[in-house]
Request: fold
Amino acid sequence: MNKQSEATHEQVLVKVTAWVDKGIAPLVDALNRHDFIFTVDSCQGDPDDPQRPAYVWFRAYNEAETILLAGALASTLRDHHTWPEEAFELVLEWDCEGNPGLIQLRCHPRSVAKLADKIKLMTLGKPAFRAWAQRVLEEGMDEGTIPGQDVQGGEPADD
Reply:
């Protein structure tokens, strides 16, 4: 039940443990490591059928952060795309019923682990991303670096 349909009780967001397809689990886990991202649906796809990619649906806490998150992910993953099977698509979706926007990340099933490793290294849940997002919301987009673009290697984010 979503927040709009439950008028008598205040709801809060809680991350939960859920069963997911084994082949998509690394990507679901990588996204959920970041404190303001939560996943809502996923599928591991079929490596032998290009019409059935792996995917994860997710969002941030609010619509503005969801849009900024999509931009940061697209920029970082695109800049660190190093081999053909790392191709990915990010899709933003809204509906006319007032539900929060969602992002779908889809990719070839064999690229799940590499994309997951890159997302683990991003600084999306860190205060720097939150400060940047707030500045963009207040002042508009600038030519500055999107937090998370500095993925070079190192330790995964601990959010």
Remarks:
- The helical segments are 25-32, 63-79, 112-121, 127-139.
- Confidence is low (pLDDT under 50) at residues 148-159.
- The beta strands are 38-43, 54-59, 88-93, 102-107.
